[in-house]
Amino acid sequence: MAKTYEEINQRIRKGEAVVLTAEEMTELVKSEGVKSAAGKVDVVTTGTFGPMCSSGAFLNFGHSDPPIRMSKAWLNDVPVCADIAAVDVFVGATAVSEGEGARYGGAHVIQDLIDGKWIKLRATGPGTDCYPLKEIETWVNKDTINQAFLFNPRNAYQNYACATNSSQSALYTYMGVLLPAYGNATYCSAGQLSPLLNDPLYRTIGVGTRVFLGGAAGFVAWPGTQHKPSVERTEQGVPRGPAGTLALIGDLKEMDSRFIRAARFHRYGVSLYVGVGIPIPVLDEEMAAFTGVSDYDIETQVFDYSKPTRAREPVRSVSYAELRSGRITIGEKKVHTAPISSYKVARLIAETLKGWISEGRFQVSAPVGRLPLEGGLNVLDQREEGV
Amino acid sequence: MAKRRLVLTFPPEVVERPVVSLMIKEFDVVTNILRAEVHEGEIGRMMVELEGEGRKLKDGVRYLEEQGVEVEEAIKDIVLDELSCISCGACTAVCLPGALKVEAPDWELVLDKDRCILCGLCVDACPLQLITVMF
Q1: Are residues B38 and B95 in the same domain?
Q2: Which pTM was predicted?
Q3: Which of A128, A166, A223, B90 is the most exposed place for a label (fewest CB within 10 A)?
Q4: Which residues in B have their CB inside 8 Å of a CB on A?
Q5: Torsion A349-A153-A227-A366 (CA) sign
């Protein structure tokens, strides 16, 4: 029998909701079938914790006396975008320190802010009649500033490629170190635990969905950048490669650096591990079937990263169950596989969210806007002129 | 056959002489160089695994000492900051001996120091810079 969001929320408020993690749901659907699972379970919690470069934070510092209209600003020597009003900035996760380079970047600024550390702010402005100050150097932390929220343009990729390297030298990539001659293959998805793989056609996850972001409650703000729903899918609707993405928003001040961590990939640059968890209401049998997805049902494509071109063809397709076994075959060769995203923390996020919902602290929400189910991506051509 | 894992320190004046090659030739010791930092005119350090017939191995090591090489038993010192580790698994991608693993059911990073050959590849592979290898 179908349930409504409100019926599920009533059960959550009464502390009666049956909440399972996506892993537990997979087991239940396997043992009892979709129909029984749909009747028993109200909410399935998902989780993922991987490097998500397309992340950043908006901050408002409050006004100095005399005031300044910042046009350039640095936090701990990391340049931030100050071209928004007077004292608003956006800290991009992948920005790097002007003094230290990639050893410290925007992601580190974000983590240090979350951890309550003092950050050195330097800013310059043109000096205007209403904002006469031209330069400021001071210290801030998350309690001295006004709003501080993450606004991540692209998080929680619905599936992602698996990377390998056929060349004769090691490659240093955002997918980690790829050893020469198919020395390894890395992958970066929580698979059966991953939010959008448990709601492959975006029935319950949409604009306005309340989510777990970096240890705090946040929201889906918009379809993420590079959201590409029109891809090859399995019969169950699960994309066979990178597809949907989410733009997420959440309060930095409430976050916990167990679930959001600065990272640096050697000879690539700075990134941010972002923890995302999304509750999926089991409205009916279709949602029970979706959330019952297992790593055996989810496939991705292996790509040779030594060919840095858009046009590269996949080497083979592979299931997450095979990837998680630690070994896949490419041609005749047995290739060692390794994850780049943390399944341990993904599981902890799903468990944490399950706890919040079971205690009645977190309810599910119907999307106020749907994510597009169709659409591909444009490419960037190198044109001689704009005609 | 006996096996020893040693750290060899070469004073600058010894760095220029091929003492390891001579030891290999003279004493029939199989030598696997695990790590080396050797530059002309500076103190050089090398971690080696030596394998040979008991007596020859002993004589070979004594020969190195006679040549001015300082010989110490290698203490395995790969250090992982476990408290800060997020168990992402990126380091396991480059760990060919399988000393670093994340596996079912816990998916928690485990370091088996006995399997580590101190190659140092994981140092660069860790996106949180939590692994140090020193010798």
Answers
A1: no
A2: 0.89
A3: A128
A4: 86-90, 92-94, 96, 102-104, 106-108, 121, 124-125, 127-129
A5: positive
